[in-house]
Structure formats: structure tokens, C-alpha cells
Amino acid sequence: MRTLNRLLLLGLLATPFAAMAADDAPSPEPQVTIRQEGDKTIQEYRQNGFLYAIKITPKHGKPYFLVRADGTEANFIRSDQPDMLIPSWKIFEW
Length: 94
Description:
By secondary structure, the chain is of the alpha+beta class. The protein has one helix and five strands. The protein has one domain: Single Sheet (S-adenosyl-L-methionine-dependent methyltransferases). It has a five-stranded antiparallel sheet with strand order 1-2-3-4-5, with no helix packed on it. It is elongated.
């Protein structure tokens, strides 16, 4: 009887931890954030909080993707023109 009580208690205590682990599991689908900036639409693609691609759709012209060049924080290249340099300077910050 004591063994049954211990197993029941252990099962009740383990249930919240299993639910928390399921919440932290990686999601198979990317999270897409869409915003308007001037005359273009920007879609940011994130997987588990990691920004890996940006789709830019201008009002006039064809859409293009910016993808991470080497996995660093701010180094993006155009997927259709990989030799094009994308400036990422920080002028000032406060």
C-alpha cells in the first residue's frame, strides 16, 4: 500500500514538470512577424526566437529575402544576389 501511495504522489508531482517541458519544446513551424515600413512590407521569420530570414516586399518591384550569411547577429545577405553587400552600421546608440 505504501508503494502505491508513493507512486501516486510521484505521478501527481511529475505532471506539472512534464507540462513545463512540453511548453519549452522547439516548435516545428517558424514564427512570422509582419510589419509595414514606409511603402514596403517586412516579414521576419524566427525559429525558437532566432531570426534567420527576412522577406521584404516593396510596393513596386519583386520581393526578396535577406538571409544570415554566417550565423552572426547582424550579417545578412540577399538570397538572390549573394555578392551584394548589405550595410549594417550603427551610427549612434543611447
